[in-house]
């Protein structure tokens, strides 16, 4: 009975952890399931079950697996908070993860640095960046320097950093998108559209496509034709059925 109770606490019965995690974040993408608050309720419910399993005592390997589950779940919580604009709670939670899981200090620090820059807390962002700078890859250094330049309003310098990231890793959609945004702030609408179109070949994130079609509307009266070309590229993918087509503003 005790083993079964622990098994329920870890994976909610025979349901795999990956499916439980998917179930918990589903409301973020389905407002009818509760939206942000529905997702947080589910995620913190899973955190509670994981904490109960740890308190009950587990063999070392199982304990490490549960800690890994909990960390991945808390990162999802922080992402949901940041995505909803609750930046300070997200930073606080990421700080907790950073302190509890030293092996994840660098990637978590990267996330915190970018959130600091996002809310304009440049001093704390630069201070944390200085702590981890020597542990970062060249791609990570360029990304963080790009975000720092954006925080300072230096869009041309930021674009140069993001361009170097894309040269290092052409599949880095985040760098490509931020580079396109920098070009827009620099008044280079046509160049920004070209960069957004390039990013759309890497990622079909709805916000990326929403920004792209908005620029189409600013650029040309033939924007509807361009939107339908974009629609064709989306429906050629295997997973297009669940795509939120309203972002195309057709």
The tally of strands reads 0
Radius of gyration: 21 Å
Terminal Cα separation, in Å? 57 Å
Largest sheet: none
Strand content: under 5%
Quaternary structure annotation: single chain
Q: Show unreliable segments.
A: 1-9
Total of helices: 13
Taking all residues together, what is the mean pLDDT? 84
Would you write up a description of this structure?
This protein is mostly helical and 250 residues long. Helices cover 75% and strands 0% of the residues. α1 runs antiparallel to α3 (35-56), α3 runs antiparallel to α4 and α5 (87-100) runs antiparallel to α6 (105-118). The radius of gyration is 21 Å and the shape is globular. Residues 1-9 have low confidence and may be disordered.
Which features would summarize this protein structure in a list?
250 residues, mainly alpha, 75% helix, 0% strand, globular
Could you give a quick summary of the protein structure above?
By secondary structure, this protein is an all-alpha fold. Helices cover 75% and strands 0% of the residues. Helix 6 runs parallel beside helix 8 (138-151), helix 8 (138-151) packs antiparallel against helix 9 (155-168) and helix 9 runs antiparallel to helix 10.
Helix-strand blueprint:
Layout: H1 2-11, H2 17-29, H3 35-56, H4 60-83, H5 87-100, H6 105-118, H7 122-132, H8 138-151, H9 155-168, H10 173-185, H11 189-200, H12 206-219, H13 223-235
Helix pairs in contact: 1-3, 2-3, 2-4, 3-4, 4-5, 5-6, 6-7, 6-8, 8-9, 9-10, 10-11, 11-12, 12-13
């Amino acid at each position: 009975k005790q083993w079964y109770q622990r098994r329920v606490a870890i994976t909610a019965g025979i349901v795999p952890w990956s499916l439980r995690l998917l179930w918990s974040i589903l409301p973020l993408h389905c407002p009818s399931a509760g939206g942000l608050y529905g997702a947080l309720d589910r995620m913190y419910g899973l955190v509670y079950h994981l904490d109960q399993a740890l308190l009950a005592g587990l063999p070392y390997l199982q304990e490490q697996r549960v800690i890994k589950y909990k960390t991945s779940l808390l990162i999802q919580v922080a992402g949901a908070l940041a995505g909803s604009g609750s930046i300070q709670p997200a930073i606080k939670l990421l700080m907790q993860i950073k302190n509890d899981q030293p092996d994840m200090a660098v990637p978590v620090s990267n996330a915190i640095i970018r959130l600091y820059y996002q809310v304009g807390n440049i001093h704390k962002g630069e201070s944390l960046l200085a702590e981890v700078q020597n542990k970062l890859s060249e791609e990570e250094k360029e990304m963080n320097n790009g975000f720092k330049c954006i925080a300072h309003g230096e869009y041309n310098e930021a674009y140069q950093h993001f361009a170097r990231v894309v040269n290092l890793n052409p599949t880095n959609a985040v760098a490509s998108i931020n580079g396109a945004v920098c070009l827009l702030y620099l008044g280079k609408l046509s160049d920004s559209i070209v960069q957004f179109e390039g990013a759309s070949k890497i990622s079909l994130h709805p916000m990326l496509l929403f920004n792209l079609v908005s620029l189409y509307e600013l650029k040309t009266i033939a924007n509807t034709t361009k939107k339908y070309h974009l629609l064709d590229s989306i429906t050629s993918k295997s997973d297009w059925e669940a795509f939120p087509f309203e972002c195309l503003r057709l």
